[in-house]
Amino acid sequence: MSCLPHLATLTHLSLAYWPWPSQKPKAKTTSVVSKNSPGIVDYGASNYYSISDGDFSDAATMLRRLSKATYCLKWLDLEGCSEWLPALAWKSDDADQASTGPQWNGAWRQIETIIVSQGWVPSALMEPRAMWNPAHSKADAMLPIGPNQREMMRSEAEKNSVVRKEEDRLQYRVNLMTWVEREQKARQIAAAISKIRAEVGGLRVEFEQGWRAWWIEDALKQRKR
For the chain, what is the HEC assignment? Predict the structure, then answer.
C-alpha cells in the first residue's frame, strides 16, 4: 500500500489474483497475550479463519483505503479474487452500520466496469452437449464396482488405476460445484454494489464474469433451485 499516493490519476487497474487484502498480511498466524486481555488475541486484523467465519472487515478496510487513493478509476480487474469479493460490499454485524468497504458513491463513483471472472471455466460447461446436471453430487462420483468388473481386474496396477480415476472424478465434481457456488456469490456481490449505486442514482456498473454462454446461464439457474 506504500504506492497509494502515486495512483491518484489511474483510470484502469488490474488486481487479478491479488491475495487477501490485509493490513498485516504477515501476521495471519501470529497471536499475542496481554495482561490486560482475558485470552489470546490475533496480532493481525485477520487470520486464516476469516474466510470460514465470514469476516471481511480487514479486507474491506484495505479496499476502502485503496478506493480513496484511486478516485479516478473507471475500470477494475478482479479476476481470480473470488475468495475476498464479499469485501467489496461488506457490512458489519450491526445492520445500521454502512459498508466499510470501497466508497461506491464516493471515490469509486466513476467505475463502470468490474471483471469478476474466476479465470477458468469447467470443461463440462465448455459446450452445450456437456451441460452440467445439478442432480449429480459427490456421491455420484464414487459408483460401486460390480462383481463382473472385479473379476476383470486381475492385477494390482489395474485396481490402482480405477481408484485414481474415481478419485479424479470426485475431485472434478467438487471443483465444478465450487465454481458454480463462486459464480453465484459474484452475482450477489454485483447486485449489492448495483443497489448501493442505485440508491443515489449513480452510474450503472457492468460486471464481466469471463463467459457468455446460454448453457452456463442455465446451469447456474438450475443449481440455484
Answer: CCCHHHCCCCCEEECCCCCCCCCCHHHCCCEEECCCCCCEEECCCCCCCHHHHCCCHHHHHHHHHHHHHCCCCCEEECCCCHHHHHHHHCCCCCCCCCCCCCCCCCCCCCCCEEECCCCCCCHHHCCHHHCCCCCCCHHHHCCCCCHHHHHHCCCHHHHHHHHHHHHHHHHHHHHHHHHHHHHHHHHHHHHHHHHHHHCCCCCCCEEECCCCCHHHHHHHHHHHC
Quote the CA–CA distance of 138 and 136 in Å, as a whole number: 7
Give the three cell numbers for residue 186.
Answer: 459474484
Contact between residue 179 and residue 118 where contact means Cβ atoms under 8 Å apart: yes
Q: What pLDDT is recorded for position 139?
A: 40
Q: Say if strands 31-33 and 40-42 run parallel, antiparallel, or are unpaired.
A: antiparallel
Q: How far apart are CA 189 and CA 88, in angstroms?
A: 7
Q: Structure pTM? A: 0.71
**Per-residue pLDDT tens digits for 131-163:** 444 444 434 433 444 555 445 545 555 555 655
Q: How far is CA 104 from CA 38, 78, 87, 175, in A?
A: 38, 16, 12, 32
For the chain, how far is it from start to end, CA to CA, in angstroms? Answer: 42
Closest CA to 93 of 62, 59, 61, 57: 57
